[in-house]
Amino acid sequence: MFEAIAFYLFAFLTIAMFFIAVTTSQALYALTALAAGMIFISAFFFILGADFLGAVQIVVYSGAVMALYAFGMMFFDTTRDVKEKNGNKYIVVGLATISAVLVVAIFAAPIVSQNITALYPMVEGAGNTQEVGLVLFTKYLIPFEVAAVMLLVAMIAGIVLAGKQMDLSLTLLDDKEIEEIKNKKMKKVL
Amino acid sequence: MDTAYLIETIIKVVVVLLIFSALAGIGTYFERKVLAFMQRRLGPMNVGPYGLLQVAADGIKLFTKEDIIPTNVVGRIFKIAPVITAATAFMAAAAIPFLPQFELFGYTVHPIISDVNIGILYILGIMGIGLYGPLLGGMASANKFALLSAARSAAVFISYEVITGLSILAPIMMVGSLSLIDFNEYQSGGIGDWIVWSQPVAFVLFWIAAFAETGRTPFHLVANDHEIIDGFGTEYSGMRWGLFFIGEYANMFFISFVIPLLFLGGYGDGSFLGALGLLAKMSFFFFFFLWTRAAWPDVRPDQLMWLCWKVLMPIAVINVVITGFVMMF
């Protein structure tokens, strides 16, 4: 009974939060609702007994949405409403509906035809965290490594893009040196 | 799920809530007294014996003060932000074993609300969400100082989460579990078994990161009184501001429980002496928070980021790699 109550409660909360995230034109509401929705999703992992994934969901998404807040802070005055540019409403609604139906169909098809089997049965005596590790380092080793390489590429690209004159700190320079740097930059532009 | 378990859990939740919200209040008294003695003052002296009732006076003031919602703020977010800080601080307590299990009227009590097998990950995750409070409070109030503090709290959150995660990775590899009770069992053999002896680097890193996570003085940039007024708290008044405070102090107490449980043997073999030992260690770490506030100046935000990404993170990664090699060969 508790599971059912928890499931319906968190299902309602998650959907409500994502609904707010999509419909509101206030950036702060949208971001906060997104963060709350992401955290409420972790409840489903806990209900299913996947404690590790639930905690990872909280840790990863609370950090990820925090980065979004930083962008929101840079681009908007978050205490005001954002004026959204709405294109053709019918196309937006149509595409959204089609993609939603498609996703549901993709996941529902194997369940309806009862064609789902667990390829990797539970290992006796292994905890939740160990189970994830076992699958990750046996069946999904290559996707895991590819993801790691992709993250490495993204990290190096980020460092290269942002890291120009990284050892330079404006707070430690005196005015003369700052002027020199300014002049140098002006020359380059000309 | 049987009824006895349900009642037991509810009682435990209520007890933890009551004790730690009271401790958060008394914590402010300790802080004032410790700071005062270190600066050769007396601290609060006038209300009650040795100023003990100062806590009650402050509480009455906070509760009865008018709750002002200024114009131009984003109302709902502004109202909910302090609640996030306070609530997540107490939610994190759900996976902390405060004492060893003991018998009460023939009934075995486990002083942990829920022994999930990913305890430490859960605690750090929820404590991390606690930083959403300052962030949202700062972004929702129409105030430049508050916005600055929100930006800082986002930066601190994103960078120091990395340090806490990487620093406890090495001990987790040794213990092979994420549950704080397993950590305690691993070190229950006595002082020689404490993880701090085999992982001193991880211990120091985690301790440093704990200051950033709780926003205490060397890293007290989020609400730095002498440059950005009270940061995210500038626009708050009354009990909403008080909730931020309760959250901060409760977090300090909980992290002071977590550090000894992870690195310093926790409650040991579970005897009465071991329980007292855990409380003593907790008190020391709490006292250390106040001690550094009296002894150290704040660092600048850029120094904080420099420390995190150029010093602490490489050390943490090297520590993990060395631990891996030692365990493999």
Beta strand count of chain A: 0
Biggest beta sheet attributes of chain A: none
Instruction: Classify the fold: give the CATH topology of the domain at 1-84 in chain A.
Output: Four Helix Bundle (Hemerythrin (Met), subunit A)
Termini distance of chain A? 73 Å
Please identify the oligomeric state: heterodimer
Class derived from helix and strand content of chain A? mainly alpha
* Total beta strands of chain B: 2
Output the helix-strand order of chain A.
HHHHHHH
Question: In percent, how helical is the residue content of chain B?
Answer: 55-70%
Helical coverage of chain A, percent range: over 70%
Shape of chain B: globular
Distinct helical segment count of chain A: 7
Question: Largest sheet of chain B, if any?
Answer: 2 strands, antiparallel
The chain pair forming the largest interface, with residue counts per chain, is: A-B, 29 and 37 residues
How do the strands line up in the largest sheet of chain B? 1-2
Task: Calculate the mean pLDDT score of chain A and round it.
Answer: 82
Radius of gyration of chain A: 24 Å
Class derived from helix and strand content of chain B: mainly alpha
User: CATH superfamily membership of the domain at 1-84 in chain A, which one?
Assistant: NADH-ubiquinone/plastoquinone oxidoreductase chain 6, subunit NuoJ
Query: Uncertain regions of chain B: pLDDT < 50 for 5+ in a row?
Result: none
Number of DSSP helices of chain B? 13
